[in-house]
Each structure stands twice: as C-alpha cells, then as structure tokens.
Automatic annotation (TrEMBL):
Keywords from the UniProt entry: Membrane, Transmembrane, Transmembrane helix
Name of the molecule in the record: Uncharacterized protein
Species annotation: Amanita muscaria (strain Koide BX008)
Transmembrane spans: 79-97, 209-230, 242-266, 278-303, 346-370
UniProt KW Membrane keyword: yes
Top-level lineage group: Eukaryota
Length: 379
C-alpha cells in the first residue's frame, strides 16, 4: 500500500506543480517544470540567498543553466527496467507500470553530475545591475540525508507565477529587472499569494490516500472474500492470512504518513527557532516501527503463500484455527462435492476479475492524473 500511496502522491503532486507552472507565461517556466518533474524522487534544496531563485527565474543569462539541467536529466531509465516488468507479480503490476511511465530519475551519480554542470552556469543579480557568474553558490543542492522538500516546489512555482504577474511592469515601463532588489521584487507574490494552497495540499494527500486504499483493499479484499466463501466457509487460515497482511500493510502506511507529517512539523518548528523536542523521537519511533512491521509483513505474505501452495493450510493439524471463524460450527473438508467445486471456481474467478478490474481502474486513474509539461505559446 505504501508503494501505491507513494506513486499516487508523486503523480498528484506532479499534476499540481505543472498546473501551477501553466499559470505562468514566463519563457523559462517550461524548462523549470521539466527539471522539477525529473527531480521528483530527489531530495533537493534551494539556496537560502534571497536573490538566487529570482535570478534563476528572471535573468536571461541563466537560460544556459536550465538548458544544461534539462539536457543532463533527459535520459531513459536503465535497460533492466524492461526485464523487471516480466518479474513483477500481478499485485505489483498496477504500481510498477505507472511508475515506469513517470520514469523518475534515480541514478544518483548521473543526477549529481547534471546538477553540478548546471550550477557552474549560475548567474546572480547584483546591486550594480550587471549579472555575475558565481562559483560559491549552488542553484540546486542534492541531499543524501532526510530532508523535507514539500516547500521547494511551492517556492519555485510561486516565483514563476509572480514573475508572470510582474510582466505588465516590463510592458509598461520597458525596464528589465537587473538589480538584486528588482529581481526579488519581481518574483515576490505578496498579496497575490494563493489562499487555496492549504486546500490544494490537503486534496493531494486525500486523493493519494483514497487511491492507495482502493488498490490495497480492492485486491487484498477480493482475495479475502473468495477464500472466506471457499469451503470451509468462514475465516480460517487462508482468509485470515490475507486479512492480517492487509491490516498490517495499512498500519505501515499510517505509521509512515504520520512520521512524515511529524517530520514536516518538526522542520517547521526548527525554522521558527522553537523546535518541538518531543516530535523528533516520535518521528524515529514511528519510522522504525513501520519498517519493522513492513519487514514482518513481507516475510509473512511470502511464508503464507508457501503454506498455501504446499497445502499446509489443508492439514488437519491446523483445523483448529478455523474455529475462530466458525466457532462450534467449524468443520474440515475431506472431499469436495461437485456443487462445492463449481462454487469455488466461481468465487475464485470472480475474485480474479474484481482484482484485475481494481488494478485496471487504478492504472487508468493514474494515467488520467498524469500531466506533462507543455510550452506556453506567447502571443
């Protein structure tokens, strides 16, 4: 479930980012959208200097930087991704196919090289109005440690939106922003700040959660129902094993999402100079607990599948476990009647159809949510 949530969150946040960029008719907005899309799965940091980001947006001298960055990040995934598709089991297929289509960049050395080359082309506005190429400041920094990057996309899109709004100043005065003060003012939204951003962020997380829950329980749930209806009817070893897997997968997702939210809150409190000391340990506890349960759940579903294919669950020694589902009506199946066989085939076929339909709906929804950067035609 965590994989499905991560995938959906990537797609929905990418859609939000590109929609924000499309509000801007700035000539460099398309290049920035392509770069940030390719850096979705990368922990990046923007410079703290106030004039650097506005300089990236406004100064024509930084066109080379955007071109170098786009060129360095514009590559196909490694060849083994095609071979991996053949090894993906059905439950992972709806998660892997959209991820392959998104093609997030994950080759660390190649990404760092592209960013390093682009950073060498950085120009920054100065007080004199003459842009200066700087070597000590980086336009983008790649992090290897945990880092909250929620704010980075918002900063860039806000800057481009503000620059687009400020275009009328150029048309009215004919003056290009060149000094440090000019470019900062040019890329500041001020009172034009979008008041709906909280709603937009909440919408992203809610949609991602609902789609992840839909895929998780649309596939696992049908397996549980099919096994529940298979003689012996009721919760037994087969159905309970999948139920446990689904519950633990959901618990892992809740723990990691909670940990992420607490980490964001902790980062915000540190930036305000008042770090909440009790949040840090909670982040680590939830994260480690989630990892532990996820490892156990992975081992459990593999072991459960082995038990099922080796007929361990059909052994009389585990008959007592079906008592949890049937109580004093529990029984063991020694021989299936023809009617039972027909019904079992019907239940399993129906389960396969529903699970496949769930996966198809998920893939279709992801494809509908995907959005590619498009250049704006300036008239």
């Amino acid at each position: 479930m965590l994989t499905a949530y991560s995938l959906t969150l990537t797609v929905t946040s990418n859609r939000w980012m590109i929609k924000r960029f499309r509000r801007s008719n700035h000539p460099r907005a398309f290049s920035a959208a392509k770069a940030l899309r390719n850096l979705q799965q990368v922990l990046l940091t923007l410079p703290k200097e106030d004039e650097v980001l506005p300089s990236l947006v406004v100064l024509q001298e930084n066109d080379e930087l955007w071109e170098k960055l786009d060129e360095g990040l514009d590559y196909e995934g490694p060849w083994w991704t095609l071979a991996a598709i053949m090894l993906i089991v059905m439950i992972l297929l709806p998660k892997y196919m959209p991820m392959a289509k998104i093609s997030p960049k994950s080759e660390g050395d190649r990404i760092r090289k592209a960013v390093k080359i682009a950073n060498k082309c950085l120009y920054v506005a100065t007080e004199t109005g003459e842009p200066e190429r700087v070597q000590g400041i980086r336009a983008i920094t790649i992090n290897t440690a945990d880092h909250d990057v929620v704010y980075e996309d918002q900063q860039v899109t806000d800057a481009f939106e503000a620059a687009s709004i400020s275009e009328f100043k150029k048309e009215k005065s004919g003056k290009e922003p060149r000094t440090t003060a000019d470019v900062i003012e040019w890329c500041t939204l001020g009172n034009c700040q979008d008041n709906n951003q909280v709603y937009e962020f909440l919408s992203i997380y809610v949609r991602s959660a609902l789609l992840a829950l839909f895929l998780q329980w649309g596939t696992t749930g049908t397996a549980i129902i099919a096994l529940y209806l298979t003689p012996t009817r009721g919760f037994g070893c087969h159905s309970a094993s999948f139920l446990l897997y689904g519950i633990l997968a959901t618990v892992v997702w809740v723990l990691f999402v909670t940990s992420s939210g607490l980490a964001h809150s902790y980062t915000a409190s540190k930036e305000r100079g008042r770090p909440a000391k009790y949040i840090g340990p909670l982040v680590l506890i939830f994260r480690q607990l989630g990892k532990t349960i996820a490892a156990f759940n992975t081992a459990w579903i593999i072991l459960s599948s082995l038990f099922q294919f080796s007929n361990v669950y059909d052994n009389a020694s585990v008959f007592g476990l079906s008592v949890f589902g049937l109580g004093n009506k529990a029984y063991a199946v020694l021989h299936l009647m023809d009617e039972d066989i027909k019904l079992t085939k019907l239940y399993w076929a129906s389960g396969m159809i529903i699970a496949s339909g769930t996966a198809l709906v998920f893939i279709s929804t992801i494809n509908l949510l995907m959005k590619q950067p498009e250049p704006r035609i300036r008239i």
